[in-house]
């Protein structure tokens, strides 16, 4: 037997740690502070050595606060001695450093208390914890995702209301000595500026109000809910001039940018958790078994909830390990069979997608050509007209309902892991739901831009059928939002609850074979991502649509919670939250990016309506930006034009690429260091006798 020398085993980790970037940075700081006066020597011994560690190399010059004793991996008695040593050090500090250290500790304590207070005020905090303990972290992640969308839509509503709606209402009603101005469009044919909303006049039946409420026509068409209400060029709030067209466009960019940044921030947090989980499966088991329990729990109910949550996590780990072993044991014949089956299933999926898209296109064209053609106004005619207006929404909802059911059925034969099964099903459903919205908008734009006469071409759009086409698109988004909520409510009331009743009280074999409804996370996530994409697209055409989305998701939370508790059973294959949270946000990010496309086309390419809206004096909505820049001083105009030129864009792009490559290389270096540290930790796990090299 040949033993490794003791000094070799102990020196290798030390030399390796000295190569870390953090250690080199500490040496540089120590060298820079070499001329300063040395601090008093701490008492040596166990406490003295750890007190020096608590100060660390950054503390050689006394520039930074000491490391808290509670963060050190030592016993409580040792932490008390370290705290006494750190407090004794304060007496020997000079100048304003004692006050700085004391105020920093006080501020940190106040911030922690405020953070704890806000955690108690968090929306649905108790409900989500109860769901986590009863049904696992996968379903809990769905309800947390729903809460995030409620907050996001509420903030978007506050933004649009304060920047667009409130100034318009104040100026139109003359509040605070305010006024507004309407500038007639120049070089525009007079027939393009005619817009007479068909409001209800005279005696109006109650069903007419219901029809208008569901379709966004009639009295709703003239309210601040839609784009056509904001036909103001300039608002004067006392002595302040308010450029409403510019504010409208900037508010649109603001809510899109806010959504993008917030989603990326949450995605990065989920991505970190996903990386930590995927790095070492053994570490995940150890964390759950030995460090997963919260010893602050004293309530028996809370303890039971935590116990169930850990049980579901371990069950998910074991299920994934079983499937990995099954995949590893496949023979070549089994691999050929499963790959051939997957190719056939993907062909079927492509055929389903093509059928959905064509059906939506034909339904939209038929609806636009045949609705609003009748002059009579009785209940039968209005009902038929309402059905025609809702025909695209019904076809889209039907496609959104049938296609995921087909995909969920087909995915069972592809033999994927539960986590990948969710991802693939979500991606297929994303193409159905989000592409359906794109097909609807494409069909509308084909009707809006169709011009067969010279008068129509002079306006740039079909002014006869769509005198205010932005409000028409807003009405379609409004109907999609309302109809989606009706379907969710109807499915819960008329499908889930009757199914629960039949399974509980009927012993027939077909009924018992169907069983209770499982809470399908992919379908439910796609429902809210689909609705949020509608909200992002429709907010430009209907500024108050985020308020409707906020109320809708607030009610959906309780609908889904009641349905989950009373009509659903725990999933047969539990779902992990660490990967689900990140992937949910990734799908939401895809929806936001797809929302950029129709909004960008509407703002930059399609001519704006000349009869309504804040951009009626401009050829396109984007034209308000160069028009505003022309009012700036000459020097500022030259700076902005220089930033927008190729001479600035190309070097900026190159510098950005260099910075990106630098951070990629730095991340790769840190990853290699982490891998080497893991190898060192593996060696530390074993007894030194096991680390001997045996040669026979």
From TrEMBL:
It is a multi-pass membrane protein. The keyword Transmembrane helix applies. Residues 28-67 are annotated as: Disordered. The keyword Transmembrane helix applies. GO terms for molecular function: mechanosensitive monoatomic ion channel activity. GO terms for cellular component: plasma membrane. The chain crosses the membrane at residues 148-170, 246-264, 339-361, 390-413, 477-495, 582-601, 648-669. InterPro entries: TMC, TMC_dom. Residues 468-578 form the TMC domain. PANTHER family: TRANSMEMBRANE CHANNEL-LIKE PROTEIN 7, TRANSMEMBRANE CHANNEL-RELATED. Belongs to the TMC family. This is Transmembrane channel-like protein. It comes from Circaetus pectoralis.
């Amino acid at each position: 037997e040949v033993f490794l020398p003791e000094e070799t085993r102990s020196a290798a980790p030390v030399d390796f740690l000295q190569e870390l970037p953090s250690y080199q940075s500490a040496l540089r700081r120590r060298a820079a502070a070499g001329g300063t006066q040395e601090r008093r020597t701490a008492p040596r011994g166990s406490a003295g050595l750890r007190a020096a560690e608590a100060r660390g190399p950054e503390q050689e010059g006394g520039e930074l606060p000491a490391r808290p004793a509670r963060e050190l991996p030592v016993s409580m008695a040792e932490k008390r001695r370290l705290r006494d040593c750190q407090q004794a050090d304060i007496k020997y500090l000079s100048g304003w450093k004692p006050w700085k250290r004391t105020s920093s500790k006080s501020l940190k304590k106040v911030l922690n208390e405020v953070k704890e207070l806000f955690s108690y005020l968090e929306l649905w905090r108790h409900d989500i914890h109860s769901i986590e303990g009863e049904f696992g972290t996968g379903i809990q992640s769905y309800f947390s995702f729903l809460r995030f969308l409620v907050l996001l839509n509420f903030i978007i509503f506050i933004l649009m209301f304060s920047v667009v709606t409130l100034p318009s209402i104040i100026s139109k009603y003359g509040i605070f000595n305010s006024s507004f101005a309407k500038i007639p469009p120049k070089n525009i044919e007079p027939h393009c500026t005619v817009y007479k909303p068909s409001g209800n006049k005279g005696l109006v039946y109650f069903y007419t109000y219901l029809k208008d409420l569901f379709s966004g026509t009639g009295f709703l068409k003239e309210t601040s809910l839609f784009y056509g209400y904001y036909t103001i060029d300039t608002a004067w709030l006392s002595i302040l001039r308010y450029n409403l067209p510019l504010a409208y466009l900037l508010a649109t960019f603001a809510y899109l940018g806010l959504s993008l940044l917030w989603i990326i921030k949450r995605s990065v947090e989920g991505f970190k958790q996903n990386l930590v989980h995927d790095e070492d499966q053994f570490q995940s088991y150890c964390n759950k078994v030995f460090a997963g329990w919260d010893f602050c729990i004293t309530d028996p109910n809370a303890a039971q909830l935590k116990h169930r949550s850990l049980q579901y996590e371990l069950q998910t780990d074991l299920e994934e390990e079983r499937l990995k072993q099954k995949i590893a044991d496949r023979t070549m014949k089994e691999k050929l069979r499963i790959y051939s089956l997957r190719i056939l299933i993907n062909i079927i999926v492509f055929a389903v997608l093509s059928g959905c898209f064509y059906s939506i296109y034909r339904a939209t064209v038929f609806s636009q050509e045949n609705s609003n053609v009748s002059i009579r106004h009785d209940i039968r005619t209005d009902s038929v007209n309402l059905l025609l207006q809702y025909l695209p929404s019904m076809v889209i909802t039907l496609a959104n309902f049938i296609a995921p059911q087909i995909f969920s059925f087909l995915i069972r034969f592809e033999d994927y892991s539960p986590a990948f099964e969710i991802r693939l099903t979500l991606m297929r459903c994303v193409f159905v739901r989000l592409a359906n919205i794109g097909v609807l908008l494409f069909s509308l734009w084909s009707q809006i831009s169709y011009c067969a006469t010279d008068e129509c071409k002079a306006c740039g759009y079909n002014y006869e059928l769509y005198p205010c086409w932005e409000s028409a698109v807003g009405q379609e988004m409004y109907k999609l939002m309302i109809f989606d909520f009706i379907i969710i409510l109807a499915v819960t009331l008329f499908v889930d609850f009757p199914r629960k009743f039949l399974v509980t009280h009927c012993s027939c074999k077909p009924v018992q074979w169907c069983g209770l409804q499982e809470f399908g996370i992919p379908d439910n996530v796609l429902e809210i991502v689909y609705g949020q994409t509608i909200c992002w697209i429709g907010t430009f055409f209907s500024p108050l649509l985020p308020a409707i989305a906020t109320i809708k998701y607030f009610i959906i939370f309780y609908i889904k919670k009641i349905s989950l508790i009373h009509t659903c059973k725990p999933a047969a294959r539990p779902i992990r939250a660490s990967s689900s949270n990140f992937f949910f946000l990734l799908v939401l990010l895809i929806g936001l990016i797809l929302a950029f496309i129709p909004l960008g086309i509407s703002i930059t390419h399609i001519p704006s309506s000349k009869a309504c809206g804040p951009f009626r004096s401009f050829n396109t909505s984007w034209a308000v930006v160069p028009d505003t820049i022309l009012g700036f001083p000459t020097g500022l105009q030259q700076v902005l034009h220089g930033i927008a030129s190729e001479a600035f864009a190309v070097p900026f792009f190159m510098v950005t690429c260099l910075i990106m490559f630098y951070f990629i290389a730095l991340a790769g270096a840190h990853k290699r260091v982490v891998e080497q540290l893991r190898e060192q930790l593996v060696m530390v796990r074993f007894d030194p006798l096991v680390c001997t090299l045996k040669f026979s």
